[in-house]
Amino acid sequence: MNELGVRRLIQGDAAAAGVLFEMMARVFEEDFEPLTEDYLGHLLDREDFWALAAFIGPDIVAGLTAHALPMTRSRSSELFIYDLAVRQDHRRQGVGSRLVSELRAAGAAKGIHEIFVPADNEDRHALDFYRALGAAASSVTIFTFSGRDARGAL
């Protein structure tokens, strides 16, 4: 069996990013709209966008996306993990842990030492996973705005 490799996708990795994002949508059972190479290239060219892919040989088996958020209380940033997905056939093999570890190391190399991630309270597996990695839970409620409000404004 090939060894697991993890790397941050960058400009020029649009094809791999397309595969990664489609795999993530499938894992989350979400609709997926194929993204253009231009869009993917623009996304991967952003310093504040992080896409890490886990490979076994040429196959992408997991990945995460994160966003660097500049802080206003100091000249620093924090990383927000937006999605982390592992294909069903590679779960419980340390792949997700490796992705988080690689993100922490890469973030630290850029001076980013704080990382946060939301997890649904009903998702016991995600809660247990992040606790096992040493993360501390915070009690927050996230509000989502979508579409138009009652007045018709966006």
Provide key terms for this protein.
alpha+beta, Aminopeptidase, about 25% strand, single chain, about 150 residues
Q: Would you write up a description of this structure?
A:
The chain is of the alpha+beta class. The chain has a single domain (4-132), classed as 3-Layer(aba) Sandwich (Aminopeptidase), CATH 3.40.630.30. The chain is globular. It has four helices and five strands. A five-stranded mixed β-sheet has the order 1-2-3-4-5, with helices on both faces. The protein has helices at 14-27, 37-44, 95-109, 124-132, and strands spanning 4-8, 49-56, 59-70, 77-86, 114-116. The longest helix has 15 residues, at 95-109.
As a percent range, the share of helical residues equals 25-40%
User: How many structural domains does the protein architecture include?
Assistant: 1
Output mean pLDDT.
92
Measured between the Cα atoms of the first and last residue, the distance is: 51 Å
CATH superfamily: Gcn5-related N-acetyltransferase (GNAT)
Name the overall outline: globular
Q: Give me the CATH architecture, please.
A: 3-Layer(aba) Sandwich
Oligomer: single chain
Uncertain segments: none
In DSSP terms (H or I, runs of 4 or more residues), the helix count works out at 4
Number of extended strands: 5
Q: What's the CATH C level?
A: Alpha Beta
| CATH fold title | Aminopeptidase
Structural class: alpha+beta
Q: How much of the sequence is in beta strands?
A: 15-25%
Summarize the biggest pleated sheet. 5 strands, mixed
Instruction: Tell me the series of helices and strands, N- to C-terminal.
Output: EHHEEEHEH
Q: From the alpha-carbon coordinates, what is the Rg to the nearest angstrom?
A: 16 Å
